[in-house]
Specification:
Blueprint lengths: L1 H6 L7 E4 L8 E8 L2 E8 L16 E6 H12 L8 E6 L2 E7 L5 E11 L3 E5 L1 H10 L4 E6 L6 E6 L6 E9 L7
Length: 180
């Protein structure tokens, strides 16, 4: 629906049409018309997956990092990461270590200052997904919340290093398994 809304920004009215013959069927159709633009989509029947349960309630490890510094470091380090290769992030007292590359090819590493609470943790993420999440947060700092390295992490905004987190937007990112 988001893509349909973006494509029909002419400012006029939008007409909806439903497939009345398939009403109640597992895959009925819906149509959108606005001016000269027409779009048809399939309506899926069923419950939306319970994604809220993926967001951890009690993070054991939390890290606060300057968002701009982290974005720039991820961009630099991911230059040597081959397609479908992860960027490893090692969170430890006072810093996050970013690494990418393999022993056979180019390697890169960066260190960014961080406030880490609850212990050390090393995990890996797809750099495009990490950049995507960091790119939509508009605060100066970000908070990573972890249960452990193998479970999804939550990234939220934070106005400054010692302030409260901004829960208005939460980005759930799945880690990638890697060999240590």
């Amino acid at each position: 629906l988001g893509d349909v809304a973006k494509s029909m920004t002419s400012g006029g009215s939008v007409e909806l049409a439903f497939d009345t013959e398939a009403a109640g069927a597992a895959n009925s159709l819906i149509g959108f018309v606005s001016g000269s633009k027409r779009t048809t989509s399939t309506l899926m029947d069923g419950d939306y997956p319970p994604v809220r349960r993926l967001f951890p309630d009690d993070a054991q490890i939390q890290a606060v990092v300057d968002r701009h510094e982290l974005v720039e470091a991820v961009k630099r380090v991911s230059l040597v990461a081959e397609q479908r290769t992860s960027v490893r992030l090692g969170f430890e007292d006072g810093q996050v270590n970013l690494e990418a590359g393999t022993d056979d090819n180019a390697q890169a590493s960066e260190v960014v200052a961080a406030t880490v609470e609850g212990g050390s943790l090393t995990t890996a993420f797809n750099p495009r997904f990490l950049e995507g999440g960091l790119g939509v947060i508009d605060t100066s700092h970000v908070r990573f919340s972890f249960i452990d390295a193998a479970k999804p992490a939550v990234i939220t905004g934070q106005k400054d290093e010692s302030g409260n987190q901004d829960d208005s937007f939460k980005y759930l990112i799945m880690p990638i398994r890697f060999g240590i």
